[in-house]
């Protein structure tokens, strides 16, 4: 177990370098904006926003490719697919918990309940991405990443435009957001839904991981 933990840390150390840069950049950028502008946002709110945004952006755009490069390295360390899957998911969970605790520790930001729910959803989404996208990159090479990359931008720019054409889409997103941040709704039901979502994404990630072949042409 100790050997597997050391191997996981060795494989993931570049991720931590990126996240360290994100945190440092968030603090530095927040200081610059606070000093140079008269924005109503406080330094703490800016830091929290940049840290969260940087982590999510990193996980969406760069993590799938990092997963594809981590996979053959994990196998070279003697880890099985099962061990690699378990330890990397636990590692991702610890990352999200640390980021969440940093944001929760900052005063005058959104409540801890909202942060934890968003963090749990992010863990599920990132698990799905690692399974569906990261493993596709391992199997099909860089072409899979470009398909995913284009798809992300289509969603980012296409969904807002569609919401203007079809108000029902906007209403669905508004309702989901309201349920996420408003404590008057049944929190137990919301958390059960989030847990089910995470379980489904983990199952998908594992099913795509256990038989994936390694493509070194990345």
Keywords:
single chain, mainly alpha, 8 helices, 218 residues, globular
Describe this protein's structure:
The chain has helices at 2-36, 43-61, 63-76, 81-105, 112-140, 142-165, 167-181, 187-209. It is globular. It has one domain (1-210). The chain has eight helices and no strands. The protein is mostly helical and 218 residues long.
In summary, what is this structure?
The chain is mainly alpha-helical and 218 residues long. The chain has helices at residues 2-36, 43-61, 63-76, 81-105, 112-140, 142-165, 167-181, 187-209. The protein has one domain.
Number of E-state strands: 0
As a percent range, the share of helical residues equals: over 70%
Radius of gyration, CA atoms, in whole angstroms: 19 Å
Mean pLDDT: 76
What's the helix-strand series? HHHHHHHH
In whole angstroms, how far apart are the ends?
30 Å
What shape does the CA trace take? globular
**Main sheet characteristics:** none
Unreliably modeled segments: none
Total of DSSP H or I helical runs spanning 4+ residues: 8
Structurally, the number of domains stands at 1
Instruction: Name the structural class.
Output: mainly alpha
- The amount of beta strand, in percent, is under 5%
